Every structure is written in C-alpha cells, then in structure tokens.
C-alpha cells in the first residue's frame, strides 16, 4: 500500500505541474496532429493500388520496408516532442523557466540521438510484427499448431511488455545525460531497478485512472444525448456529439500523456542528480528509491 500511496502522491504533483505550465499540453497535441498526417500519407496511396487488405503480400520486402519507415517516422515525431517536453519540465523542476522556442531548439540539437533511438525502436517494432505475421500465416488447424502459435504469441506479448518497461526512462536519459539509444536503454533499466514499484504502479495505475476518466466523460455525453433526445435519425446531433466525444478523448489522452512524462522526469531527475525537484516532496521521493 505504501507503493500505491507514494505513486498517487507523485501523480497529483505531476498534474499540478501541468496546471502551472499548461503550454506543456502543446506537445502531445502536436505529436498527435503530425502522426495523423503521416498515417494519412501512408494510407491514402495504398488505397489507390490495393482495394482489399488480403491483396497485400506480407512477405514482401517492400511491405516490411514501408512498415519500418512508418514506425520510424511515428517514433521520430513522438520522441522529438517528448524531448521538447522533458527539457521544459527539467527546467521547471530545477526552478527555472524555458519557452517553447527554446525547447524546440534543444530538441533539434539532439536530433542525432532522436534519430538513433527511432531507428532502434522501429527495428524492434518491425521484428515483432514480422514474428506475429509469421506465426499467424503458419498456424495450422491442429492442436499442436494452435499450441505453438499460442506460446509464440505469449512470447511476443512478453517481449512487448518487457520492452515498454526497460525503455520507460529512455527520453529523460537522452535529455539529462545526452545518451545514445543503447546507453539510454541501459541507464533506463538501472533507474527502473531503483524505482521498480513506483514506476510500474504509476505506469499501469495511471492508465487505469485514465480509463475511468474516459468512461465517466463519455457516459456523461451519452446521458446528455439521451436527455436531449438525440437519436440515430438526428444526423447533425450525432455529428455534434461525436465531435465532442472525439475532442474529449483527445484532451484526456493529452493530459494523461503529459502527466506520465512529468512523473517519469521527476523520478529520473532524483535518480540522476540526487536533488529534489522543485514542487516535489523529499520524503515521498526518498521512499520511492528505497532498496526494492
């Protein structure tokens, strides 16, 4: 229970940082906006040449090459804006100030690290997708084939979860220590060992809180639509409620994504420097780093 209480205390402090510096929310919105543009750029040309998804040759070098490029660009965008956010948060936690333009300049100065990490991440993602595709395409309709496919699927899920855990502090490591991708992964793993309980409880606990917030807000919108008598026959009403639902989902994801980034940065800052970030409680952080 101590882990949960400390995790919740740090989560509340993370939201307070966002409340004081609302411009931080610009970064997840920009990341989402450009990611949608990239997805559209890849999807629209494919639809001109491939009418049915079954026509895609998933063993094709071109297919996997395109998928790798897509993963690379999406990771590049996400990492770039995350570096911008972590840089600003770092300055805030140190008691200073930093503008958006300075954060963009800092991220551009770390483009070699961002590109390196994006290549590593895209490679891992593509290899995992290739493994999943190979299992699905060779799965036979017999008990042994199903068992082997199930075991391999579990292995892939385990690798994905492990990868998400060991890379939790990669971005802060790049910002604080100017580390390349492999050094950042090693540093992130060492930090995870120090904050094992808090890191995982927050990582998955915050996702659970986000789910309930989404459920609550969307439930309110449904009740509002029912109260206003908006049904399937009311095209304009459905469009308006749908737009409100999408806007609500985007805002919730942006806020919780940034809270996650603030939380990670605060934990990493204490692990890297031993200094208590401004606005955070010394006792809570020191307890978070007790030997696990």
- How far do the termini sit from each other? 14 Å
What's the main sheet like?
A: none
Cα radius of gyration in angstroms:
22 Å
Q: What percent strand?
A: under 5%
Plain-language structure description:
This protein is mostly helical and 292 residues long. The protein has one domain (2-288). The chain is 82% helix and 0% strand. It contains 11 helices and no strands. The two termini are 14 Å apart. The relative contact order is 0.13. Residues 51-55 have low confidence and may be disordered.
Brief write-up:
By secondary structure, the chain is mainly α.
Short descriptors:
292 residues; mainly alpha; 11 helices; 82% helix; globular
